[in-house]
Amino acid sequence: MIAPILEEIAAEYADRLTVAKINGDDHTEIVTRYGIMGFPTMQLFRDGEVVHRIVGARSKRRLLAELDGHF
């Protein structure tokens, strides 16, 4: 459900943002490391550290509003 939105954002902001997706079922070590409890969970990293976390699906407009100022 959120994948098409993330693909649009990745294309539109390619010069400022890298979007990477993982399957939590296939990468349980990452889910555990970051304490992810639900899907979708989106995390914004800067210099290897999580600076913002969004849990749950969002519209493109709402997602960009939450990310405003982070990139």
Q: What would your notes on this structure say?
A:
By secondary structure, this protein is α+β, with helices and mostly antiparallel strands. Helices cover 34% and strands 18% of the residues. The chain is built from three helices and two strands, in the order ααββα. The chain has helices at 3-12, 28-33, 60-67, and strands at residues 41-46, 49-55. It has a two-stranded antiparallel ribbon. The longest helix has 10 residues, at 3-12. The mean pLDDT is 94. Belongs to the thioredoxin family. InterPro entries: Thioredoxin-like_sf, Thioredoxin_domain. This is Thioredoxin domain-containing protein.
Q: What topology does this entry show?
A:
Layout: H1 3-12, H2 28-33, E1 41-46, E2 49-55, H3 60-67
Antiparallel strand pairs: 1-2
Quick recap:
It comes from Actinomadura vinacea. With 71 residues, the chain is α+β, with helices and mostly antiparallel strands.
Q: Report on the biggest sheet.
A: 2 strands, antiparallel
Please tell me how large the radius of gyration is: 12 Å
Percent helix range: 25-40%
Number of helices: 3
Percent of residues in beta strands: 15-25%
> How many strands in all?
2
Q: Give the overall form.
A: globular
Oligomeric state of shown chains = single chain
How far apart the termini lie comes to: 23 Å
Q: What is the H-and-E element order? A: HHEEH
Structural class: alpha+beta
Low-pLDDT ranges: none
Mean pLDDT value: 94
The strands making up the biggest β-sheet line up spatially as: 1-2
